[in-house]
Amino acid sequence: MRFLTREELNELVSAEESGISSPLPTQIVSSDEYLPAPQTPQQRQVEACLQEIGADYARKQNLSRRRFFATASGMAAAFLAMNRVYGPLFGVTEAEAATPEIAEQRADALKGQMILDAHTHFVRSGSRATGLLQQRNVVGSLLHWNQDLAGRQPSMEELQYASYMKEIYLESDTKVALLTNAPADDAEDWLLTQDQVFEARDRVNKEAGSRRMLAHFTITPGQPGWLDSVDRAIEILKPEGWKGYTIGDFLHMETSQHPWRLDDEKLVYPFYEKVAKAGIKNVCIHKGLFTPAAEQKHPHLRPYVDVSDVGRPAKDFPQLNFVIYHAGLRYVGGYPVGGSDEFNATGRLAWTTDLAEIPEKLGVTNVYADVGATFAWTCVGQPKLAAAIMGTLIKGLGSDHVIWGTDSIWTGSPQWQIEALRRLEIPDDMQKQHGFAPLGAADGPIKSAILGQNGARIFGYDQHAELASPDRIAALRSDYERSGPRRSNLRHGYIAKPATVPG
Fold first, then answer.
1. Cα(426)–Cα(112) distance, integer angstroms
2. What are phi and psi for residue 223, nearest 5 degrees?
3. Could you tell me where in the chain the CATH 3.20.20.140 domains are found?
4. What is the rounded distance in angstroms from the CA atom of residue 143 to the CA atom of residue 13?
5. Of 47 and 399, which is predicted with more confidence?
6. Comparing C-alpha atoms, which of 49, 86, 48, 51 is closest to residue 65?
7. Which end of the chain has a smaller Cβ tally under 10 Å, C or N?
8. Measuring CA to CA, which residue among 172, 164, 176 is closest to residue 210?
9. What does the pLDDT look like over 326-357, one tens digit per residue?
10. So what's the architecture of 116-124+160-466 in CATH?
11. Band of the pLDDT at 164, cuts 50, 70, 90?
């Protein structure tokens, strides 16, 4: 599996081997689905500032900079650097970075917050999804920033089950993760087989002694026998939800044989009727992430990637929840600035604003947005755009209809994304100009709803009943933390070569 050409890959280096080992990525990290944007001047400033203040605070705390960056104080230092460059978007104090006890006190106070990540991945052993590995091998330890990887060969194991368990459950505050998948026309190209998704769910929950993992069954409208597979899933696998990609073969878009639309009455409406009858009502759909450059490469898929097909089935099937992944945002990878320019000029975001307007236009209450990778990319590259996305979704859909998801483990442990949302605030001028509500405190009603309560509600998860007693994962995390700060801060993906940075 590879989306980028060899020539494009030659312009990239491994994020694991060539990025500063910081709590936050200091430039856009991609999989091999799209070209990551070159590091911007502002991101270079963040990186330089973070290295400087990280070295200073680390020295005062008698730690190496790498070890400091693995602590709660190190995470606080990263947001200090972001604020110095982008303005006061993130709630953080100098005292958190300078005083470990203050940072740990804040971290401990938030540790019990319900975090349900409705958008996680790993790959199976023997997967043909080798693009991430090939990317890490483009050059060897070019800048020697991540000494944890120096002198060893990266492997696909870092994208598999064991790494997933460590980065999701031990290195982040995530309590429950929903494992999802990506379809292909050739079964050999799937990240996981359908059965492997549910074997992983059952294994995690059995070993934990509680329900820590949920799972999607991936639908493939148009492929032979796809509705029969839905019947089997209902009877045997019992998913918590359904995942679909209207572009069809997500892994080989250039040859995708079965793109489809949510409003196709002949093809897809029978599916809605089946799952509504079965009571498995969460229909989660990959949308957006289709830049103008992607449209040029795959013009045949353009009718299937926006959110114009969401409203009618949502109105026709009010008993179902339509959860649009990545919030339908068009601009990703090398194009986050496109989203910022559009919002600054028009106050709109293609196609996220269209999604947010569906409830008012059609009078429906069953349309949701998963923030997916869009929050991760924008809070690193264009944090004001991240604030605009959150403001737009909350204004249109309501804070009770926005779902947390991180698209991990492609960018490593999701803790930095959790912290970014906990600390993010929409600037006052943006609130006044666009009628956005403030996001509020890290554990306030809006952020608590988005980070976990909304997902728990629609996926039928009762935290107080299911996590009433410490389980095996809680014990493992406690042991992990007692052994010392070990968060790896690894990113699994591409970054642009420094030589490609303009100016």
1. 25
2. -75, 145
3. 116-124+160-466
4. 10
5. 399
6. 51
7. C
8. 176
9. 999 998 655 456 788 899 999 999 999 999 99
10. Alpha-Beta Barrel (3.20)
11. very high
The answer to whether residues 423 and 90 touch, using CB atoms and an 8 Å cutoff, is yes
**Pairing outcome for strands 402-403 and 282-286:** unpaired
Least confident of 91-100, 239-248, 375-384: 375-384
| Residues 21, 146 contacting (CB under 8 angstroms) | yes
Token look-up 């995530």 returns 174
Half-sphere exposure of 162 (CA within 13 A, CB side): 5
Spatial distance between the Cα atoms of 478 and 407, rounded to a whole number of angstroms: 25
Q: What is the mean pLDDT of residues 88-113?
A: 95
Q: What is the pLDDT of residue 373?
A: 83
CA–CA separation, 133 and 119 (whole Å): 21
Mean pLDDT check: name the lowest of 52-66, 193-207, 274-288: 52-66
Cα angle vertex 232, ends 227, 233, to 5°? 90
Model-level pTM?
A: 0.86
Q: Residue 303 and residue 135: Cα distance in Å, rounded? A: 31
CB atoms within 10 A of CB 209: 14
Classify residue 323 as exposed, middle or buried by CB count within 10 Å of its CB (0-12, 13-18, 19+). Answer: buried
Residue 479 is which amino acid? Answer: D
Give the burial string for 443-479 (b: 16+ CB within 10 Å, else e). Answer: eeebbbbbbbbbbbebbebeeeebbeeebebbebbee
What single string gives the DSSP state of each residue in 201-236? HHHHHHHHTS--EEEEEEP-TTSTTHHHHHHHIIII
Q: Could you tell me if 66 and 39 are in contact, meaning their C-beta atoms sit under 8 angstroms apart?
A: no
For residue 407, what are the CA distances in angstroms to 95, 245, 361, 376, 431? Answer: 32, 15, 30, 9, 28
CA angle 130, 136, 138 (to 5 degrees): 100
**Which tokens go with 99?**
């005083």
Instruction: Sheet containing 213-218: give its strands across.
Output: 116-120, 176-179, 213-218, 241-245, 282-286, 321-325, 367-370, 402-403
Q: Are 144 and 432 in contact (CB under 8 A)?
A: no
**Which residues make beta-bridge pairs with 285?**
244, 324
Tokens 């179902």 correspond to 320
Residue 260 has pLDDT above 70, yes or no: yes
For the chain, give the number of residues: 503
